[in-house]
Amino acid sequence: MNYIIFDLEATYWEKENGRKSEIIEIGAVKLNDKLEQTGIHRVYKK
Hints:
Oligomer: single chain
Number of domains: 1
Radius of gyration: 15 Å
Number of strands: 3
């Protein structure tokens, strides 16, 4: 069995600013059944 662990990184703005948060990076790691890393993927949106 393989496992995929992913992480989202987003901007954070104070509510008074009126701006919405945006996802700026997506990261993922693939692990095998021994929990050894077998792959990695990273995407930067901005």
